[in-house]
Amino acid sequence: MNRRQLIFVIILNALISLVIALAVVWAVEARRPDAEELAIALPPESLLTTLPTAVVGADNPTPTPDEAAPASPNTDSEPTAAPTATLDPATQQIYTIQSGDSLSAVAGRFGTTVDAIMKANELTDPNVVFVGQRLIIPVANGGTNSGTSAASPGENAPATTAPLSTGQGILIRTVDGPSVLVTEAVQIVNDSNTVVNLNGWRLERENGPAYTFGPTQSVFPGGNLWLHTGSGADTTVALYWNQSESVWQSGTVVRLVNAEGALVNSYTVP
Q: How far is CA 189 from CA 155, 192, 225, 267, in A?
């Protein structure tokens, strides 16, 4: 076979391969169903599954089961909020953690238990509290496991000798640690529904020394204020008298007098 014959055979094979390829493509295209025929052959339900979600929503406004079901609250993504429940001043108080406080010390001061405080504030670790943290403290009839409770407002307190006016609802709840200078403190609570400014008011021992409140001392509704006999740095909820010896002993009558000199409340130390 000479060169001319070889070239002719190669070209002929190429043409035959091209014809075969075109024939295969034509056969495949001939077997493919027409789009209109497919629309007629297939049921409407199967066509819907091929359409975009936006088109289905436009033609069929009925919500899917997932859309119709109400969203469940996501309790894992949001932290527990601070207590916002309405307080009952007779059974609950708000206390702000001070430097050096522990949950057990606070529980002992209010005559309640650590477990009761943790339950009221949804705490998980009794060893984790921070300065400035506001806690709901169950007191009085708030329920304790130890069988003891703090004195309720007005308990052991003689009736006032003057009508309550601007001091309505301000009470001496208790005297903590009497006769011991470093622990001695008087708790004043506001059982009214308004803020009471104690400017010019006096907390005094009957026939004894008196502490006069300044213009910045206010007690909010349901709130409380501690007056410590010893020394320390004043805060919004804790004041220090800077006395060199204790003022309150068992049997002492504690008097709270307003700026007009009227007796608002009194308390006898047990």
A: 13, 9, 6, 13
Q: Are residues 183 and 264 in the same domain?
A: yes
Residue 159 is assigned to a structural domain of this protein: no
pLDDT number for residue 207: 87
Helices (DSSP H) in 34-187: which residue ranges? 35-41, 44-48, 53-59, 65-68, 103-110, 114-121
Q: At what angle do helices 103-110 and 114-121 cross, to 10 degrees?
A: 100
Yes or no: say if 191 and 93 are a contact pair by the CB < 8 Å rule.
Answer: no
Rg (CA), the chain: 41
Pairing of strands 210-212, 202-205: antiparallel
CA distance 33 to 69: 41
Which residues lie across from 202 on neighbouring strands? 212, 257
If asked whether residues 174 and 259 sit together in one domain, one would say yes
More confident residue, 94 or 65: 94
The residue count of the chain comes to 270
Alpha-carbon gap, residue 75 to 64, rounded angstroms: 25
What confidence category does residue 159 fall into, taking pLDDT thresholds of 50, 70 and 90? very low
3-state secondary structure of 9: helix
Using CA atoms, how far apart are residues 63 and 15, in angstroms rounded to an integer? 60
CB atoms within 10 A of CB 236: 13
From 41, 72, 103, the end of a domain falls on 72
Token duo for residue 188: 């004043």
Q: For residue 134, what are the β-bridge partners? A: 96
| pLDDT tens for each residue of 71-82 | 444 444 444 444
**Beta-strand relationship, 253-257 and 202-205:** antiparallel
